[in-house]
Amino acid sequence: MSRGDIPQRFFAARGRGTLGQGGSFIEAWFPQPVEVDAETAQSEGTGTWVTGRLDRLDRPGPSPRRIDDAGRDLRERTGAGLPEGFECSLLCLIDTAAAPASVEDAYLRLHLLSLRLARPHEVCLDGMFTLMPMLCWTSAGPVEPNRLEALRSQVRSRGEWLRVWSVDRFPPMTDYVVPPGVRIADTARVRLGAHLGEGTTVMHEGFINFNAGTLGTAMIEGRISAGVVVGEDSDLGGGASTMGTLSGGNDVVISVGRRCLLGANSGLGIPLGDGCTVEAGLYLTAAAKVEVLDDSGALLRTVKAAELAGADNLLYIRNSLTGAIQARPNRRVIDLNPEIHINE
Amino acid sequence: MSRGDIPQRFFAARGRGTLGQGGSFIEAWFPQPVEVDAETAQSEGTGTWVTGRLDRLDRPGPSPRRIDDAGRDLRERTGAGLPEGFECSLLCLIDTAAAPASVEDAYLRLHLLSLRLARPHEVCLDGMFTLMPMLCWTSAGPVEPNRLEALRSQVRSRGEWLRVWSVDRFPPMTDYVVPPGVRIADTARVRLGAHLGEGTTVMHEGFINFNAGTLGTAMIEGRISAGVVVGEDSDLGGGASTMGTLSGGNDVVISVGRRCLLGANSGLGIPLGDGCTVEAGLYLTAAAKVEVLDDSGALLRTVKAAELAGADNLLYIRNSLTGAIQARPNRRVIDLNPEIHINE
Amino acid sequence: MSRGDIPQRFFAARGRGTLGQGGSFIEAWFPQPVEVDAETAQSEGTGTWVTGRLDRLDRPGPSPRRIDDAGRDLRERTGAGLPEGFECSLLCLIDTAAAPASVEDAYLRLHLLSLRLARPHEVCLDGMFTLMPMLCWTSAGPVEPNRLEALRSQVRSRGEWLRVWSVDRFPPMTDYVVPPGVRIADTARVRLGAHLGEGTTVMHEGFINFNAGTLGTAMIEGRISAGVVVGEDSDLGGGASTMGTLSGGNDVVISVGRRCLLGANSGLGIPLGDGCTVEAGLYLTAAAKVEVLDDSGALLRTVKAAELAGADNLLYIRNSLTGAIQARPNRRVIDLNPEIHINE
């Protein structure tokens, strides 16, 4: 994700955010970001404005207070010393080609991806891991980890129960965004910043990381790692794995073309072109040697899987008698079942 | 699932349902359906009656208002124009051999399966996918997707947090039914319409789709796809996959007999008889060629796995030196650990 | 887990618990257990004291009432006949080398593991499965299964929704404990009694059972079965499986050393030493025959995988042309990405 490849666009969004113990935002929700032209953006400058108290969201005071790009000293700048846990409304203006400058800026970038205002790799996310604070996502709202046990004690004292569904830097997408035309059977498995094309179904075993996802209709019962993009009309079977770049040391960004099928419990370590199938249970790593066969089954050559990166219309199997991984022309490109893919 | 094979039975149930924007039910809960005889059912006719407001559930008004099978125009027929989101009590009478005629009818069918009043494949579910509405399942109850963001804004304005745990046509089973004698470690992975036999444990990696499930004691740490049935005393290891018929183009309904073990990360593309084991990590697709060995390890013949469909007492492995998939007599049929299978 | 190997230590903890229909505790929360010396512990004796009503937690009455080790007849002993569902405060004193004697005792043991006061296998858990009651974990708190439907009806009558996230003997850890310095993307997949070392990240596909876990920094995207321990700086890839001892009949306790990598969708049936890698998609069962190669790729010998138990610095692959499982010196020991492993 080099910045040079990322188009410069500007987005502004009103939102609501929670202030943490340090006096800066620890999370923010932006329901309707809008793109603004470069001239306007550059005259205003990127950054965050605190536009009023939450209960006055529609009547912002006469002089919204600007805070700087770093967003570190909101408490000081807002003068009144907004208390921790206080939720206030804010306005955020960002440059997609620049690195995120504050927590709220980072949250807005993730919203752009999940709201389909940008595709994976079109927003600069440099430094996200250290910027996004660790939070506990609870039935009483997000809370900083060092405050959790006091909150649990309070809640339990009232005879209620505190549920904590995630302890993470990245929240579940549906805590903020549910894009139209998708199904997500178990929302715990889709992070904010995932890009779900219209017509995408994420089944219970599916998973989509941030800055990754689908571009159109898709059946996702496997795992889409950070950075991985899946083309239209493709199907990731249950438990199918795509190698990511965050861990494991792989440098090549994996992608899946259109009308591809990754069989159940299969895995993918190379980018696939269109119309490819990986047999159920086969993990195709980049370093694996693959026998390339013609349509009649005759051996053409043996290559590393990495050399087949991006090739179209191939069927990958492990020969069930010889144990060799083989690639051959794919005779049977999948059709997604239209009945289960209308997500209206 | 051809209708011809489905026995005609009639069930009636009182329940509670939520009305959507279109004025018809978007979901319904039926805690105690009862079977009724054919004569009674046919004199009454199948359909839905709105029996009163929720707060008068036990004192239905003198003239319950009938709505038609299509259930589409509840608002008109109930005269008073029940408001969206209004929850009212209803009575539903259905014929299991006929296709579902309304949302509430479809929900009642799924309840029958999860309450063990019918087994998988014993209730006609034709057209379910288009009938069941997409809903967001939230901490504030089920809501139609186009109303979600307004609800989130409301809830967040009150200083509370809206959790959305599923965006789907099929709800989690435990939002409606928890049958006796089961454990379900992570309820997000069992859909309403799943059939869990008494003594079934679904671990965190287990999954059971609707119209599928177990018939008795079972340890489920793998995935039971739609239509798949698992016999008593069988064990699906962590991440084990069973091929479904909804996607992937497989026509044969997969099933697992009694006392079978699917090893962790294995997969199954053929029906298994009783007493079979599939080695951990082996995906047995129907098209795979399999070496059939005798008890001494001598090769008897080589067949397609599909030809072994339904055979009892076979052990399937991939030979770790030759890479060939092999079937041989299964010497060691599993015993489930009784201590962890008493779900009382 | 033989008692003889478990060091005798004593812990005392104040907590809060819920009383069930039988008049004894069905669950208990202990935020801050403390170790006590043997002399004190033995003069007091192990057991449970009910120290007061919840609303008087900080002002225990003059005569805390002792209950016996079995904890079965709390109702009788507390005299006043505490009502079901009543939450009261308690004090519990246990001996880690003795078998758990009551539900609250069992809960305290699981807290010790998750709070890092004891490591896996350092607390006697004999008889846990039959001791821990089945509960439904709901948005209205834990409830015994036979009370669930009445509760659901009540909640739904109020226009609210009851969420049931687990039906199990063991609760999700984060309902009780969130240790410092960890990330847990989907908390439904970590049981109370899991031991997460500081710097551990459990991704969405990760899972950790009780009496199992990590000892330091680790990336867990696979499944850590009961009893399995993973050393520092190791990485379990997405969907990776470790064989447990509760089911499957395996007698050897699996463990993973330091700086190991289990590739995505791989599996492990033997203990690994330090610096080992199992290739993505390879399930290494104990019975598999493995070709052991030298650094140049020459075959040294063929052995059962079980004979390689505990060996350091090995790379396990399945040869993609011959289908044979092979072990060779591991040239490329992993480094965890430090940016994503700072969980502060």
Describe the structure.
Three copies of one chain form a homotrimer. Chain A has 344 residues and is mainly β. Chain A has five helices and 28 strands. Chain A has a ten-stranded mixed β-sheet with strand order 10-12-15-18-21-23-27-28-25-26, with no helix packed on it. In chain A, strands 1, 2, 3, 4, 5 and 6 form a six-stranded antiparallel β-sheet that branches. Chain A has a four-stranded parallel β-sheet with strand order 11-14-17-20. In chain A, a hairpin with a 2-residue loop joins strand 7 and strand 8. The first copy, chain A, starts with 9 loop residues before the first strand and ends in a 15-residue tail after the last strand. The model of chain A is unreliable at 53-81 (pLDDT under 50).
Question: What would you say about this model in short?
Answer:
3 copies of one chain form a homotrimer. Chain A is built from 5 helices and 28 strands.
What is the secondary structure topology, with strand pairs?
The structure is a homotrimer of 344-residue chains.
Chain A: E1 10-19, E2 25-29, E3 34-36, H1 38-44, E4 47-53, E5 65-67, H2 74-77, E6 87-95, H3 103-114, H4 128-131, E7 135-138, E8 141-143, H5 148-157, E9 164-168, E10 183-184, E11 194-195, E12 200-202, E13 207-208, E14 212-214, E15 218-220, E16 223-224, E17 229-230, E18 234-236, E19 241-242, E20 255-256, E21 261-262, E22 267-268, E23 277-278, E24 283-284, E25 289-293, E26 299-304, E27 314-318, E28 325-329
Parallel strand pairs in A: 10-12, 11-14, 12-15, 13-16, 14-17, 15-18, 17-20, 18-21, 19-22, 21-23, 22-24, 23-27, 25-28
Antiparallel strand pairs in A: 1-2, 1-3, 1-6, 4-5, 4-6, 7-8, 7-9, 25-26, 27-28
